[in-house]
Amino acid sequence: MFPNRIKQIAQEGGTVLNGWLHIPSTWSAEILARQDWDSLVIDMQHGMMGLDSAIPMIQAIQLGGNLPMVRVPWHDPGLMMRLLDVGALGIICPMVNTADQCAAFVGACRYPPLGYRSLGPTRARVAISENYLHEANEQILTFAMIETAQAMRNLEAICATPGLDAIYVGPGDLRLTLFGKGGIDVEEEAFLEVLERIVRVAKQHQLIAGIHTGSAAYAQKMMAMGFQFITLLSDGNLLASASSAILAETRSGKSGPAGKGQIY
Predict the structure, then answer these.
(1) Among 64, 85, 239, 260, fewest CB within 10 Å belongs to which?
(2) Which domains does the chain carry?
(3) pLDDT tens digit string along 92-109?
(4) 0.90 exceeded by the pTM?
């Protein structure tokens, strides 16, 4: 069917480098799909897209040969099922604070007897596999976001949820609820100890641990800590930083190395 290369990379001890999409555009999604990302996430929680733009973005990512996942805006089983039916290969669910919430989330992504997902993979059966029904429970990925003090209190119970594949740290919200201030790429020792605990518990339950980062240097630090799913910036961040860099270089009068992959 797939096979799901995120699972393959993690099982082989590697690290998945994931791209993050805020811009509701099939064109930008397809461009990033043809880069060297291991997977791409369409962010319906804080991104600009609704369902009508997310669906063609899933198609564009698959056309570009990449693996599309979606972060849903909330614990909405109906929306999760629709996104899976059109071809999303994984769901990231925000604000999972209890084991019961996690079980309800995972159940929405699994067909019976493992869950309560309704049968009707309209596009997935065509675009992914005619045998989709019999392979989806094994290959569809479920990521529960750990991003609150309550989630940290329930971390072990959440990670013990049957059928859960991964946990994903929302560092801004997690730091905000724990220490009263947000931010990513945080170096304070107390927060790093929280991250180390998350990785340790995830590994005890044979889960992939993921986190959002804002720089290559911090991403490398998180890889060394044991995170195996690393998101770097977002499409909007990458567009802004590339624009700033080329403008600064041009105005400085100093030329850098020739670029690659320009689009005309």
Answers:
(1) 260
(2) 5-247 (3.20.20.60)
(3) 999 999 999 999 999 999
(4) yes
